[in-house]
Amino acid sequence: MTRIISVALYSRGGPVAAGGSQKPLGSKTYHWGILVSPEKSTGRDCAAYHATDKSYLDTTTYRMVNPEMKWYFEAKENIDPELSTKLVGHLVIGKVPDKATAADIKALFNSVPLPVKNQNPQQSCKTWIANAILALQKLKWASTFDVKKFMDYAVLYADERMKGTTSKEPKMKVYVPKK
Question: How do residues 129-167 score in pLDDT, each as one tens digit?
Fold first, then answer.
């Protein structure tokens, strides 16, 4: 079974179906992550990986989790990305080798350096994605392309996707670098 690797962009505001309800802030408009899925997904057969600094209220203990908002790596397995109301779209950038296990994939993304707080320029989930792409390229799991140009393209793609039903872009698209 062929597994593809995509860079996923998520709405930071309301559901994507709202269509352009966010103010454009460039790449900061979106949360960035990685999706690994079969070429033809049939539901809860995907995995998502990202760096986050979110804090939230634990509804059992009523205490804040991560109140310092430190960056950490998060892996979610056996998910169906189509159930996410915040997934704007994803750009396919590579393939997982047949011999790689789920543990290998998770270990790869877990080894990507986390963003560092209080840096100039500010680091974020986008920084983590850029480093994840470089790690994928080093392993030949993704083709070699200019990461900055890809990131700029991804923002334009997501901005178009945020138009909702009038968008001309598909939810999943294979990234083809311009020569």
Answer: 999 999 999 999 999 999 999 999 999 999 999 888 899
- Which pTM was predicted? 0.89
Sign of the Cα pseudo-torsion (10, 114, 5, 150, in order) = positive
The string over 127-149, giving b where at least 16 C-beta atoms fall within 10 Å of a residue's C-beta and e elsewhere, is bbbbbbbebbbeeebbeebebee
CA–CA gap between residue 119 and residue 124 (Å, rounded)? 10
Yes or no: say if 125 and 8 are a contact pair by the CB < 8 Å rule.
no
Instruction: Please report where in the chains the tokens 């939810």 appear, as a residue.
Output: 171
Q: Render pLDDT for 88-112 as a digit per residue (tens, 0 to 9).
A: 999 999 999 999 999 999 999 999 9
